[in-house]
Each structure stands twice: as C-alpha cells, then as structure tokens.
Amino acid sequence: MEISLRNQIAIVTGASSGIGTGIAKSLASAGATVIVNHSSERSTDDAKAVVKEITDAGGKGITYQCDVSKEDQVVKMFQDVVAEFGTVDILVNNAGIQKDAKFTEMTLDQWNAVIGVNLTGQFLCAREAIKEFLRRGIDPSRSVACGKIIHISSVHEVIPWAGHANYAASKGAIRMLMQTLAQEYGADKIRVNSICPGAIQTPINTNAWSTQEAMNSLLTLIPYNRIGQPQDIGNLAVFLASDASDYITGASIFIDGGMTTFESFSTGG
Ligand code: NAD
C-alpha cells in the first residue's frame, strides 16, 4: 500500500514543538506541503528550524505565525494559505496548553486560557478549514475525500485527571466536536477524526520523564513499557490524512502504549 499526500496542503497548528513538529515532518515526508504554524514571535526560530529540517529532507513547508485562540488571526491564516497555495486539504488541530491547578484554586484565567487554545482554537481552525473544503469541492487529483481534519485530543478524553480539570474538560469536549463535525459533513466527504495520545515525550510534560524516578513512575501506567515519541503520532497522522483511511471518520484513535487498558488492574481490581 503506497501512502502519498502528494499535491496536498496541510496546516499543522502548534508545529514549532513536540507532537506538532513530529506530525509536520511526517506529513512532509509523505509529500504534503506543510504550513508550520506557531503562536508567537518567541517560537519563530523553532518553527524555522522545523521548516529547515523539512526542506533539507527534500520536502516543502513554510512557517506561519498565528494564535489559534484569536478569530481574526485564524481567519487570516486560512486566507493567506489559500492565496499562496490555492487551497487547504488537511488540518491537524494540534496546538494545546496546560495550566494546572487544584480545582478550588483554579483561576478563571487558567480555565479560559486552556479552553481558548485547546477547544476554541480547534473550533476556529476546523470552521475555516471546512469552509475552504466546501468551496473547493472534491478534486480526485488530490484525494478521494473533500478534506481531512485531525484533532489532537488525549487519553484524557476518557481518563479523568485530578488537578487538570480545564485540560480534561477541553479534551472531553473535543470528542463531541469531532463526532458532530464527522456527522454533519460526512455526506460532503469530509473526514474528521481524533488522535488521542498517551504519554509522549515533549516539553508539555517534562516533569513526567525528566528524572529516572519520574520516568519509572510513568512507566507503571504504560503496559508497553516505553514513553511515546512524536514520530509515533506522526505515523498515525499520515495514515489518517491519506486515502488509505478513507472509511474512517468520527473515530477517536488511542495511541498510548496501552495506557487506556488501565495497567493497575493487571494485578488486582
Ligand atoms: P508542546 O508544548 O511541545 O507543544 C504545544 C504546541 O502548541 C507548541 O508548539 C506551542 O507553541 C503551541 N501553542 C500553544 N498555544 C498556541 C496558540 N495559542 N496558537 C498556536 N499554537 C499554540 O506539547 P505537545 O506535547 O507537543 O502537545 C501537542 C498536543 O498534543 C496538545 O494538544 C496536547 O494537549 C496533546 N497531547 C500531548 C500529550 C503528551 O504526552 N505530550 C499527550 C496527549 C495529548
């Protein structure tokens, strides 16, 4: 089975770091032209380094600064990408943050910041992407689908997470956003799915893997006994963006080394 994303334009949000970088590199190596979105001036160098890696490997990509929680910036990003590349075929809604606090001490700012990026950001980008997919229609030289959206959710779409109520609420909500869009636009041949990662080694969760003690504790939650890498998620994103997965829509796919089998029940329960 050949998987190719040739002639397709992909926007990956929050691609200057971690999982987004892994996905951007994987989509580019499958032939897509990748828009490496980053949120602020501060992440410009990181985004440029990702594009350099992509182009050094023979792929195509550009950086694009846009805060996905801001409607005007998201609308402009899609307008600019369509003006430069003609359309958008693939959206990977990856940008996400954590602002952790015990629930009774969680401020409204912490709540709003996480919902703003993790949920509203995914809503805004998905809305602009679907408008563009519908404007273009199906072009069989690109894909048998009219467009593909991949939401980056989390195992915390189903596993409650004390001390992270804002984050868990945002990921639980992504499931219903994703399934509703899959239902609403299935007849238009727009596919919408979620990737739900377990523990992936990135800057968002440094405290879970940066010491041997933390890593050992983390591994007790993972039957497959290793932490995941951004490339693991990139491989799945390529599959979900490609015609090889054409009958998959409305699905949350867990990629977690077995974390959602609840390892602690293997010796009791
Ligand atoms: P990360 O901190 O390395 O990357 C997050 C990215 O989002 C960064 O590039 C950051 O600049 C970007 N970002 C933040 N706010 C933004 C905004 N307003 N606009 C645009 N970009 C913005 O973390 P990561 O682990 O790579 O996380 C990526 C996604 O994967 C998140 O949605 C996260 O919730 C999810 N996830 C991560 C793990 C994990 O174990 N690492 C597990 C499950 C889900």
Automatic annotation (TrEMBL):
Database matches in InterPro entries: NAD(P)-bd_dom_sf (IPR036291), Sc_DH/Rdtase_CS (IPR020904), SDR (IPR050259), SDR_fam (IPR002347)
Domain of life: Bacteria
GO biological process: monocarboxylic acid metabolic process
Family in the record: Belongs to the short-chain dehydrogenases/reductases (SDR) family.
Protein's recorded name: Glucose 1-dehydrogenase
